[in-house]
## 1
Amino acid sequence: ATSQAMIVADMPFMSYQGTVGEALKNAGLLMKKGGAESVKIEGGVEVAEITYRMQRIGIPVMGHIGLQPQSLHKYGGYKIRGRTAEEEKTLLEDSRALEQAGCWGIVLEGIPREVAARITHRLQIPTVGIGSGPDCDGQILVLYDLLGMNPDFQPRFLKRYAELFKVVPEALRRYRQEIQEGIFPGEEHS
């Protein structure tokens, strides 16, 4: 996939929330040793300075606003962001701050379709939606979710293209059984 896809690595929790120097070092490590071609940072206005500093030294940054998985406790869990006029105003300010800081694109997660459309329309950089409607410039669906690996995870935005949670346990059971019975590995696997 890397011959055509751009590898964007999520900056892990607390890898960029400390000092700017720590954030730059950690982003550099993701690119140098992790094979990332860009990093993704959750937050808006509060991460604009870090974003600016990263892109100034050659680290491409993708922003992420709306529902921010690394900040679940701050917002009280997996909740849609942007339902009130005040939240929409904050999201617009965050998106503009990230664009001005040099982000090449922004993930809009868990934002009402109309709000995501307004944000997308007002920015010069692309938006990528996850649970934010079809008006974003691109879409994300996590592979694990797309393949149906967890039967209990069923948010509204999720569309399963397979139900591997039904198939994988049987395959693993057969694998274990064949090892115990000495069937695998066979001569053709040795």
## 2
Amino acid sequence: FRPWALALYQYRQRNGLADDPVQHCISPAGPRHLMDERGFRMIQDRNYERVYVMFGGGNRNWRLIFLDGREPPDPEEVVGTYYGYSSGQWEGDTLVVRSSGFNDRFWFSNGGLPHTSALQLVERFTRSDYDTLEYEVTIDDPLTYTRQWTASWTLEWMAGEEIAEYFCEQ
């Protein structure tokens, strides 16, 4: 952590995460959108060379990952969004996604890890078998952290489950 980020993280912990934006219907984003208990679904559209990620958590959110070879834009040149601007490519059986252009209004982890609009992610999605998705993310935000760092977890397919309609209402 940079000193300001550590202080903010510690404040959020002492505060019991009471100021979590999700409690005010602000979208979970970054890696956090894959942690929501309501699930998500990834759909590859080969006609338009893109992947749609649809989330069960809050107000019918969805994310778009371009597979047409474009590069993510320079974060200095775009208005930041919750899901950023993502482009991906297949490396064997792994979808590698590079994202930038985030705003700083969301927490990208359930534990309140801070970030700035300089955040850039490299995500790796590997379906190691029919029921298992391996997820790895490298976080690069030089204004918040002193170095890049990586986290990973495994997601299990829930057979027969559909994403239910859910709207966040205060």
